[in-house]
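Lab notebook: predicted structure, single chain.

Context: the supervisor wants predicted structures on file for every construct in the current expression panel, including those that have not yet been purified. This is the next one on the list. No modifications to the sequence; it matches the entry in the shared construct table.
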Amino acid sequence: MTTRRELLKLGAVGALGLAGMKGGDDDAPSTAPAAAPVTASLLAPQNMPVPYMGVFRRPPELTPFETGFDDGDPARPYARYALTQKLGQAQFVPGLNTTVAGYNGIFPGPTIRVSQGTRTEVRIRNALPATSFLHPGAFKTVTHLHGSASLPQYDGYANDSTKPGEVKNYHYPNWQPARTLWYHDHNHLVTAQGVYSGLAGIYPLSDVYEQAQLPQGEYDVPLLISDAMFKADGSLGYNDNGHSGLWGDVIMVNGVPWPTMKVKPRIYRFRVLIGSISRSYRPTLSTGEPIYVVGTDAGMVPVVQPVKSWRQGTAERYEVLIDFRKYRPGQNVELRNLSNKNNINFANTNKIMRFQVIEDSGPATSFTSIPTTLEDGGAPNAARGGIPTMKLTRDMAVAKRNLRVVRENGEWTINGVTWADVEKSGFSRLFGNPQPYQVEEWTITNGSGGWFHPVHIHLIDGKIIGRNTNGGKPFAWETGPKDVFYAGENESITVLMQFDTGAHAGGRYMVHCHNLVHEDHDMMVQFSVGDYRTNDPVTSDPPVLDTSPADSYPPVYRPGLPPGT
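Prediction complete. Output recorded below exactly as produced.
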């Protein structure tokens, strides 16, 4: 059995060239992380992807294997889905195959589109081999639907692991306003390796307000942006630079390196998700034209924000509009990456993808202008005490808490606490204990010097009300509801949040850095809404042995658009 100490040393496993790697005990900010020795892909020139040669593709959309109504009530629809975590082969680089561990064996995993008010059950079977190909431990998994107000036992609690050969049925309420969620691995100590190996997919939640105000169908495009490095044989390399982070030299969009997408001269909506495990991005258009931010992690923004670029860390989601009507057919427009402090950049990491404008075709759409304001319709659970996130005010807060992220003695901590401390307490140690529907004000401070930290708070939607940078105000692109808060170098962010668990009692939820290497080593704590013993996330509904035949629940995907569009 692999010990915790051995797992904490796994940053080098599968790496590309380990000589001279910086150790994990040097906490001087001046050496982190850009000064750490790094390695790029070891691919032969003929196997190295060339920017914009790849054809853009959208992840396939999964259909439910069963639909119906709870107790026959048409107002209470449900849908059941099935996913199998298994190995698959991808062709990320020319001429070579890459083994991935993916949902249904693909990366990204299938997109699951759901309408507000339709509860879902997602049956997730672990059909992976006994041992991971990126670390020597067991290939256990935990699935977190990021952005969902799920019960703790379905929230992807880091210690609620599913072993190979087991299955867990996750329940998702989907009562929240429209947003871009995503599902990914969350297995403690090796979350970074799980996500990096391919365990990630997109889960858009829609409602009538979003459908009426933003592009749909062909013009609603998910972009899962990630980075990777490759060994000479095309397999994934892994190097976390002494537990600082992994920065690959190949940027991928939906699993295609630097793809080219054909677009019509229309307005497109892009759901931009950073699925990298460490890298942050600053997207911008090569033309210098504005991009319009219409949604943040947890839903639509009240006021549409035109920006020339925006800063986006791992796990953050921004929904943006790009107006291609101003470009002529045949014109190319690049989505570039200006990057941010303390990334490690390579020759082509300043590129993300290219848009190639083509002649218009097909029926006209009703979406013909950029909106200036958006209305989310309010919280659907307002009768129970829910308040729309962007209407929260400081006078509503019943408590103020400070959350300080820092590196100490080679480990990443929150207020000096690690997840190991939580485990030692029998999972009773809490950062906070709000009651259902209470509002609190949290200030997140990055005290770690030369690193940035995208801090994710499970369960909640938050409103940023202050920054110690940008004149004390949130940046233009983060003026909507958020659940990941980018704490740049020496930055602090003040956030209002309501602990809204919907119709159910609460329980324990995690707070962690979404640089997944930092989360694993060991920047994660927990809070509880109400009694921490309620809905125990490990024992309330544990995984069970899967006795179904291997070919049960074959996936059925909706017809897709032609490749490249």
